[in-house]
User: Fold this.
Amino acid sequence: MSRRVQVALVGLVCFLLGWVVAQQLPLVHAQTVTPKSPTWLHGLDLRVRKGGQKDFDEKTPKYGVEVFRDDNNGNLVYISETGSIAVVPAR
Assistant:
């Protein structure tokens, strides 16, 4: 018997053995815990100026950022009005 046929037969036997054993394993059920909603903490308005600009003026753009605490894992989630998201561990 060639080496290729031996490898194919061993693979087939392992597959069939795994299939038979898998039928005997108990079923796994998902957890029924409902996730908690995030808690709103802060609303921030940040003014951003260019690198060469020394002072803030009327043309300096403002960006809004909301801060939430994820009560499921304790992380802080920062979401800006442009759609950027940052997640950091709470201390």
Observations:
- Strands lie at 39-47, 62-69, 75-80, 85-89.
- DSSP finds one helix and four strands in the chain.
